[in-house]
Design a protein that fits this description.
This protein has about 170 residues and is mainly beta. It contains 2 helices and 12 strands; from the N terminus they run αββββββββββββα. A hairpin with a 4-residue loop joins strand 11 and strand 12.
């Protein structure tokens, strides 16, 4: 009986200790710390360990110490034509994809800036998702697309507006 009580005591105390675990620390970064805007719409941590934040004022890369901000006017006409970043994703090869209100961009490590995928100019890109086959899926104006970066080809999957029944009053 005594052994059973001791065993229960040990199990409960170990369970409580592991449930409490390590303390969680939350650091709030703002424009005072170098973030381009306090309005962050998306984020991800890439395979290199960088944290990326999409804001209404550009793409922000954080290395754990400082922010590097990518804005349209800072990297010219081939860069993002809108600073309002809506979606981010990373593909299996570690390429960062950026969806803005005016197009889809592929981050170029050599140039250190996002480069516009020309066929998506002026399209609001949302819901970026990298697939295992290397393709990138996204939504643009209520239509789902699949982009194959190797072939540089697009395929329209479905237009949600076409498939949705009209609501009646």
């Amino acid at each position: 009986m005594r052994e059973t009580i001791l065993l229960i005591y040990l199990l409960v105390s170990f369970s409580l200790k592991s449930a409490l675990g390590q303390p969680h620390y939350f650091i709030n970064y703002s424009i005072d710390d170098g973030l381009s805007s306090n309005t962050v719409s998306c984020s991800l941590q890439d395979k290199k360990g960088f944290m990326w934040f999409g804001t209404v004022d550009g793409v922000n890369r954080f290395d754990g110490y400082t922010f590097k901000v990518y804005r349209q006017q800072e990297y010219g006409p081939d860069g993002t034509s809108s600073n309002n970043i809506i979606s981010l994703c990373e593909d299996r090869e570690g390429t960062l994809w950026v969806g803005s209100e005016n197009g889809l961009y592929r981050y170029n490590d050599t140039l250190e800036r996002p480069v516009l995928i020309a066929a998506t100019r002026n399209k609001g890109i949302t819901n970026l998702q990298a697939a295992g086959d290397g393709s990138v899926w996204f939504m643009a104006h209520s239509t789902a697309f699949r982009y194959d970066p190797r072939k540089k080809s697009f395929r329209r999957i479905i237009a949600l507006a076409d498939s949705m029944p009209l609501l009646s009053a």
